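Ex. 9. Protein: Ig-like domain-containing protein.
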Amino acid sequence: MFFTKLLVDDTVFLRNMNCKVPPSILEADTSTDTVVEERAKVSLRCSASGYPPPQVSWRREKSKDINLGSVGNTKNIVQRVEGEYLNLTQVTREDMGAYLCIAKNGVPPSVSKRILLQVNFSPKIKVANQMVYAVGGSEAVLGCNLEASPRPLTSWIRHDDVVLINNHKFEIIEKEEDSYKIIMQLKIRNVSDNDFGHYKCLAKNTFGDKEGFVRLIEQITTTTTAMSTIPYRVFIPIQRVVTESHTSEGTTIDKKEYGAPTTNSLRDESQVVSSEKQLGPGKVESRLEDETQQRRTVDQRPKNAKKSTSGSNKSFFVPCLVLYAAASFNLISNYLLRA
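Predicted structure tokens for Ig-like domain-containing protein:
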């Protein structure tokens, strides 16, 4: 009471003397570091003096948002709060961190105080990769994402219930991302058959404990065989081409030539097969029978038969002999009939 009356009297005196005094934080009336549980309510106070009377404002360290609570389904998030009091409703782990109260009245320098807000909650573990593959003899890294406050006790336990420690085989690494976020990693060197199996990451504090599981699986390497490069032959049907050559005596001699590609090439055969697919079953069978009959007729013809020519003496003599024999037969027949 006396201290408050003294401040009032000093303010009146300074006003009358037209003096200006820079702001200062009154520690006795200002909040200190605060620890609360998640979902609780928090009210922080920052009291300052000076002349003219300073204005007090609040903001978070690293320019983070201030969550003043939800209004219906919408969060009331701001960057700055004006006033001596900062009221937070239902704080969460995201609200954890440092808050700055700043007092200024236009007379330099401005003053501020850092108040740390800690929100306690039980550990929570998330495992991004529950199955990790590794080849024998290589190095494997298992990981767990941990959130907890206060900072928990952590450990890694192997599938045979052995608590792992740092040595030439295992290395335990912990990386802090935030005041309550930790990345737990277990590095396994020179992976062997006994290392494959499940591993457990464990975290425990005064509010509870949590565990996560990661399984180390052997990766089977597959070998590929090269395709055979042995050369192979491709047979293309060849058709004989017979040509006629004239001699000096006027006769023709058959001349055979080889090496000309047949008209029924592979492409033609594919076209015939595709056209046969469009026919009905009965038409295809009858067509096959006709083709088989034609092949038999061609095979029965003499292979060395020669074509007759109009200039040959033999081809001219034979028809005349036949006509003469027919005429003689008619004469003898008429004579016998008359007799």
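Check your answer against this statement. The two ends are 184 Å apart (CA to CA).
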